[in-house]
Amino acid sequence: SYASLGHISSLLFDEIAEVALVRVDEFSSQELANTVCAYAAIGHSSPALFEKIAEAALYSIHKFNSQELANMLWAYAKVGHSSHALFDEISEILLCRIHELNSQELTNKVWAYATLGHVSPTLFDKIAEVSLGYVNEFNSQELANTVWAYATSGHTSPTLFNKIAEVSFRRIDEFSPQELANIAWAYAKIGHSSPALFDKIAEASLCRVHDFNSRNIANTVWAFASVGHYSPALFDKIAEVTWPCLHQYNSQELANTVWAYAVSNFPSNVEFCHDQCVADSIISSFEKFDRWSLFQIHQWNLWCSESLDNSILPSDLSNRCLESFSLEDGSPSKLQRSVAHVLTKMRISFEEEARLGTGYSVDMLLTINGEKIPIEVDGPSHYLGESKTQNGSTRLKHRQIGVLDGLEIVTVPYWEWDEVAAKDKRNNGFKYRIAYLRSLLKKQYIGDGAIN
């Protein structure tokens, strides 16, 4: 009753929790669900009570109706209390009852699992399959929350994402600023290419950018940059809006924003690399940046060098960024080892995971006739989903190595390497792979006479 009335008394809820702990085994399924919902509704954490209720619920979980299961999931996700055994058991039950769920319930389930970082691939696959029949009924929040949940969980579902993109495209004007940012973020995070949807998001965002908060702005520009979908008009408008309040951004928002502009590299946005107020914002937040944010700041700083021929950060901070960036560990992938094996057979000398002056490492740095040739063996993570389009971070790396290290990267895409091998499966395509590399090196970097 107190929770439903919005009346919050921490002391009272603590006392109720103490009493409930010794009587939980007497609770019905409805009482168990209602109790955790009440605590979640007011944001009152009671780990001991939630743990005890999870244990009690496991003994009678099959007696819970669909609404009670939904309430349990929502409550545990809302307070951030993870209970793997409970969520695993609920997952099994939901698989049997999946066709009883409506569109909102389907969305809420994946949202709860994603929020707590609880992986349930079979459940997510089944919900994706069933959701295809409901997508047209989803409201904008359900559309955005669904793709957010799948992206947060790292669970790909191309068919569902294609369908949601199609529906969202038609109804983009229904989305709030947060929903626009979230759906863009989700497609970028999972690496799902949808150019038409991003065009529509850019169009809708351009008209409403003044309604975006700092998180919405940072997520939006990060998403567009990550998928390599460039919208100069949107980035120009966001730069205009961002400029007066950049100092109010938290460290992650600041790093994501300046990184996005470095990736996009629009001539009209050079103020992001030559205006002192950007540098001042970064300097004042420097000690708050985590390692990943320092990587992004380093790449932004390199962009300054691309555009201005010098770094805009003080030398000590530039060096700290470079040091952090250069410490990134790289271990050869199976695909990379396969290419290295063929190069060895070709008697070409090379260094694996070679570190360049910019701090970037390349998979292999060849030396042929005294000339340095970088090779990047690009697996699926360098591309958008099942497409052959490089993502934004890969494009940024190649561009900055070309401009600042003065080296043109030779790329070995994973699908080309596999296609070549398929020509002679018995010998793993060895002869054809030698011919492929020889042709690639001649065509992309050196003269025909350099490799025999």
Indicate the CATH architecture of the domain at 334-445.
3-Layer(aba) Sandwich
Q: State the CATH topology of the domain at 334-445.
A: Endonuclease, Chain A
CATH-assigned homologous superfamily of the domain at 334-445: VSR Endonuclease
Q: What summary fits the major beta sheet?
A: 4 strands, mixed
Shape: globular
What would you report as the Rg, rounded to the nearest angstrom? 26 Å
**Largest beta sheet: what is the strand line-up?**
1-2-3-4
Unreliable parts: 446-450
Q: Which band does the percent of strand residues land in?
A: 5-15%
CATH class of the domain at 334-445: Alpha Beta
Could you estimate the helical fraction of the residues in percent? 55-70%
Q: What is the count of helical runs?
A: 22
Give a verbal description of the structure.
The chain contains 22 helices and four strands. The chain has 452 residues and is mainly α. Among the domains are: 100 residues; 112 residues, VSR Endonuclease (Endonuclease, Chain A). Strand 2 and strand 3 form a beta hairpin. It is globular, with a radius of gyration of 26 Å.
